[in-house]
Amino acid sequence: MTFRTRVSVDAPADLVWGTMSDVARWPEFTPTVTSVRLLDDEPFGPGSRVRVEQPGLPALDWMVTALTPGRSFVWETVAAGVTIAAGHVVEAGERGGAAVELSITRSGLLAPLLALLTGARTRRYVRTEALSLKRRCEPPGRR
Q1: What is the secondary structure of 111-131 as a DSSP string?
Q2: Domains (ranges, CATH) in the chain?
Q3: Model-level pTM?
């Protein structure tokens, strides 16, 4: 089961990527994340572990499983026997802007049940995070 959202951002893709990949600062601009803590001393990249706290959800430890610098990263966690992969992609858009796609994919025997119980919140959180990133990156007057 995958939930996906896409937004256009009126800002350069490298600025959007820098903001999106600086995960420790997410609580500054999105209300769906209250805390992000890097659990390793290494730079953010494949194998990095990150603890994310969100309102109404248990804290989860995520591991970066793929990263293409300047373009995308995926991190994964396991909760209640369900593997959850969160994708974060930035593409250069028209006229110097960018397109952002965020996704959550759940797999495992209990994935349909978890989606039924938390699907509405997941869709709301993913959409809010994309729009919060857009607001953070766009200059005032273009939002």
Answers
A1: HHHHHHHHHHHHHHHHHHHHH
A2: 2-137 (3.30.530.20)
A3: 0.92
